[in-house]
């Protein structure tokens, strides 16, 4: 206990005022003042407000707590850029209220998910993530496809945010399910920055022929990678699903280097690139496995 | 104490029991989501899927257990330190009822997916308004007593209580400013990087002013009460208090390292975070030197070890936290399970430890009896300690493992591991964490049982006397 008879600690009102001022100094410098600087309000030139369907999807993303497991910000670090793509820019988020950068990557970052997969991939993956990644811990979102979007509510949200929408947007909304909306949101995330892979392979960067050709262990290794990464789209037995049948593909006797480059670079909008995540050896083993399907 | 019978213990007791009720719910949800992480089949439809339950877990424990306990314990401390019963006892009772009604609505709203997606500020705007009303009621009650106190000087605990009331009000109101779009949906008033900056200024200081300053208020009050030893240094209390509340508000941006937030804000945040070690350790040192006069209290007084181990975890927490802010360390452990390991050392090792010890101290005083069983309290202590250490250590190991696996590259420049390969390596640690959680919850059930039996004992004695 203070023995000072008339110290600050015997004057409650004064004490409260001094405490308030003390906590406001850091608040003003780091939070309030920056609000009035241009650096806090950047906007990419080609960034568009969310459409009604995308906003409905974003509302679902928020309601389901997706942000608990998925970040939406790629750090300017080598490994992040290799895994996810171009690092996040401040101007991408001008319409994000709130920001959805998250704080935990139980699942992968989604900042560059837009355009990475075709719509059908998302539809099947939300229904059953384990069909794509057997050991995935993502919940199945089976109810989304049965629930209609609340169209009047979504349009009220658009108005509150001041986002423009046309009549046909409103009619399209009326027949959409929550799954349609969530997929539409997935596909727009991060698309105001051009898609860019950290590693893009051309023929000059790889061997002219598969260095693992004829090795049984390469086929086995390739098959394991196929099951973990490819089977969701191309089928457990390479029969095809969202993506082409790989047995049919193999029967066409494609050049090893063409197969390698397709796996490495992906196909825009249809198939993700794997060059950043699979070493040369791993990709060549996948090529060996594909060749074994002839 | 004279006029002891004037103190309105009913409200305090109501908050303690409410906090325990919400605490048990939050802990059970915690166990379920810990298992969902290693077995997706444990997600049961939309209302019991991880995304919604994880939000419920943090909010029910932070608001229900944490703040519920703080309301009750603060009323107890404030009455004692102002040497008068609550000025407005009926308002305090109303505060208790509104708290529980609010918690029911808040819980249901999160089940229903009404979620602002702002960490620790998930509640939608109608609940936010209820929370602000609750806080104002709380402030009126506490400040009413402080302004009409019968004790000239305000003790350290009251400083922390007053700082908590003021700062939480500022933080909560500013971060929850939103554009309402309907009764159940709103959009943050701030967009993009600005939204992130406001949220983490709030988020970090919610930790600071809901789980640091209130717990320090309890620590500074109940440690001397339990041990009979006065706080070692009043001057150190003063320095720690002012430097802590000054520095805390600068540090939120350490949650946004390597994001698009302007670098200067990140760097300023990191620098002040490192500075924050000093005032944090001011209280740690003050606690240690208080008991240094007689370390035998660790044996002879069963509550001393709760406070000393609690403040030790606070000390570790406030070294670990600032380290995590440094860019190179952040680049390794951010977004991994290291962070839940860190958070749970604070909540399970520091916050819950000190709250439980405070309740153990208050109960006999309020019910005019002895604690039902010191032995059970000791068992509670050791079990929660084991559970918490196991929880945090498994998360630190798997966090570093995953952070490293995310970074590792091959000679050809590609990544060594796919995301799935890094994920499944968490599973054994997540299973161990579930076991740790069960151990911790068992320890907490010993606490709950001890509390209920002490209350029963007190009530029985009161009946006999009547």
Topology:
The complex is a heterodimer of chains A (294) and B (466).
Chain A: H1 12-32, H2 52-63, H3 78-84, H4 119-127, H5 129-132, H6 151-161, H7 167-174, H8 178-188, H9 216-234, H10 246-251, H11 256-265, H12 280-291
Helix pairs in contact in A: 2-6, 2-8, 4-8, 9-12, 11-12
Chain B: H1 9-36, H2 50-82, H3 89-111, H4 125-147, H5 156-175, E1 178-182, E2 185-188, H6 192-210, H7 213-227, H8 234-248, H9 263-275, H10 277-292, H11 297-300, H12 304-325, H13 327-333, H14 338-367, H15 374-407, H16 419-424, H17 427-465
Antiparallel strand pairs in B: 1-2
Helix pairs in contact in B: 1-2, 1-3, 1-17, 2-3, 2-4, 2-7, 2-14, 3-4, 4-5, 5-6, 5-7, 5-8, 7-10, 7-14, 8-10, 9-12, 10-12, 12-14, 14-15, 14-17, 15-17
Structural commentary:
The complex is a heterodimer of chains A (294) and B (466). Chain A is mainly alpha-helical. Chain A has three domains: 9-40; 52-188, Cytochrome c-like domain (Cytochrome Bc1 Complex, Chain D, domain 2), CATH 1.10.760; 203-291, Cytochrome c-like domain (Cytochrome Bc1 Complex, Chain D, domain 2), CATH 1.10.760.10. Chain A is 44% helix and 0% strand. Chain A contains twelve helices and no strands. Chain A starts with 11 loop residues before the first helix and ends with a helix. The mean pLDDT of chain A is 95. Chain B starts with 8 loop residues before the first helix and ends with a helix. The model of chain B has no long low-confidence stretch (mean pLDDT 96). Chain B is mostly helical and 466 residues long. Chain B is 74% helix and 2% strand. Chain B has a domain at 1-189: Cytochrome c oxidase-like, subunit I domain (Cytochrome C Oxidase, Chain A, Up-down Bundle). The radius of gyration of chain B is 22 Å and the shape is globular. The longest helix of chain B is centred in the C-terminal third of the chain and has 39 residues, at 427-465. In chain B, helix 2 runs antiparallel to helix 3 (89-111), helix 2 (50-82) packs across helix 14 and helix 10 packs antiparallel against helix 12 (304-325). Chain B has a two-stranded antiparallel sheet with strand order 1-2. Chain B is built from 17 helices and two strands. In chain B, strand 1 (178-182) and strand 2 form a beta hairpin. Chains A and B meet through helix 1, helix 2, helix 3 and helix 6 of A and helix 2, helix 4, helix 5, strand 1 and strand 2 of B.
């Amino acid at each position: 206990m203070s023995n000072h008879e008339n110290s600050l600690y015997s004057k409650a009102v004064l004490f409260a005022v001094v405490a308030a001022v003390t906590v406001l100094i850091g608040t003003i410098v780091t939070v309030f003042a920056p609000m009035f600087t241009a650096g806090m309000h950047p906007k990419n030139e080609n960034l568009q407000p969310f459409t009604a369907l995308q906003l409905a999807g974003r509302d679902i993303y928020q309601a389901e707590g997706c942000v608990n497991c998925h970040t939406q910000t790629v750090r300017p670090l080598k490994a992040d850029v290799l895994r996810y793509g171009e690092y996040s820019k401040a101007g991408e988020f001008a319409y994000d209220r709130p920001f959805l950068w998250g704080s935990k990557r139980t699942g992968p970052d989604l900042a560059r998910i837009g355009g990475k997969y075709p719509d059908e991939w998302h539809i099947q993956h939300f229904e059953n993530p384990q069909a794509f990644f057997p050991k995935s811990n993502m919940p199945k979102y089976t109810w989304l496809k049965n629930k209609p979007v609340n169209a009047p509510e979504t349009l009220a949200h658009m108005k509150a945010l001041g986002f423009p929408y046309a009549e046909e947007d409103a009619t399209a909304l009326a027949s959409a399910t929550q799954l349609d909306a969530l997929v539409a949101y997935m596909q727009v995330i991060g698309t105001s920055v051009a898609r860019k892979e950290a590693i893009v392979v051309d023929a000059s960067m790889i061997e002219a022929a598969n260095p693992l050709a004829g090795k049984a262990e390469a086929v086995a290794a390739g098959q394991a990678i196929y099951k973990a990464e490819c089977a969701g789209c191309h089928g457990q037995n390479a029969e095809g699903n969202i993506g082409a049948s790989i047995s049919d593909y193999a029967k066409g006797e494609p050049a090893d280097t063409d197969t390698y480059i397709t796996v490495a670079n992906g196909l825009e909008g249809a198939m993700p690139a794997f060059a950043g995540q699979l070493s040369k050896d791993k990709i060549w083993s996948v090529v060996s496995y594909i060749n074994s399907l002839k | 104490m004279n006029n002891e019978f004037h103190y309105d213990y009913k409200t305090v007791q109501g908050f303690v029991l409410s906090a325990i009720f919400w605490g048990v719910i939050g802990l059970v949800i915690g166990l379920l989501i810990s298992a969902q992480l290693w077995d997706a089949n444990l997600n049961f439809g939309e209302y019991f899927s991880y995304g919604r339950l994880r939000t419920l877990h943090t909010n029910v424990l932070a608001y229900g257990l944490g703040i519920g306990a703080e309301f009750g314990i603060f009323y107890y401390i404030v009455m004692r330190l102002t040497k008068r019963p609550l000025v407005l006892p009926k308002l305090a009772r109303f505060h208790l009822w509104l708290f529980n009604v609010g918690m029911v609505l808040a819980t249901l709203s999160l089940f229903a997916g009404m979620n602002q997606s702002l960490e620790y500020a998930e509640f939608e705007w109608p609940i936010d308004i209820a929370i602000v009303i609750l806080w104002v009621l709380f402030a009126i009650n506490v400040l009413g007593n402080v302004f009409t106190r019968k004790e000239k000087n305000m003790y350290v605990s009251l400083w922390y209580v007053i700082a908590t009331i003021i700062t939480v009000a500022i933080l909560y109101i500013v971060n929850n400013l939103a554009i309402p779009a309907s009764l159940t949906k709103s959009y943050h008033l701030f967009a993009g990087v600005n939204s992130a900056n406001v949220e983490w200024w709030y988020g970090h200081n919610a930790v600071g002013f809901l789980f640091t300053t209130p717990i320090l208020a309890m620590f500074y009050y109940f440690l001397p009460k339990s041990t009979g030893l006065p706080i070692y240094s009043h001057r150190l209390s003063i320095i720690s208090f002012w430097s802590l509340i000054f520095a805390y508000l600068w540090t939120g941006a350490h949650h946004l390292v390597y994001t698009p937030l302007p670098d200067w804000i990140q760097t300023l945040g990191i620098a002040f975070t490192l500075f924050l070690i000093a005032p944090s350790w001011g209280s740690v040192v003050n606690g240690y030197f208080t008991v240094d006069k007689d370390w035998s209290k660790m044996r002879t007084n069963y509550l001393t070890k709760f406070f000393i181990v609690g403040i030790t975890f606070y000390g570790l927490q406030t070294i670990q936290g600032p380290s995590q802010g440094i860019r190179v360390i952040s680049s390794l452990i951010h977004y991994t399970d290291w962070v839940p390991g860190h958070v749970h050392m604070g909540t399970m090792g520091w916050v819950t430890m000190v709250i439980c010890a405070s309740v153990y101290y208050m109960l006999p005083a309020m019910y005019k009896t002895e604690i039902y069983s010191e032995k059970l309290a000791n068992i509670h202590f050791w079990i929660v300690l084991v559970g918490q250490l196991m929880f945090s250590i498994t998360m630190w190991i798997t966090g570093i493992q995953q952070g490293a696996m995310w970074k590792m590259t091959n000679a050809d420049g590609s990544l060594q591991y796919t995301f799935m390969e890094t994920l499944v390596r968490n599973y054994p640690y997540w299973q161990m964490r579930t076991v740790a959680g069960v151990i911790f919850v068992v320890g907490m059930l010993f606490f709950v049982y001890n509390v209920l039996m002490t209350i029963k004992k007190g009530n029985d004695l009161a009946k006999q006397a009547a």
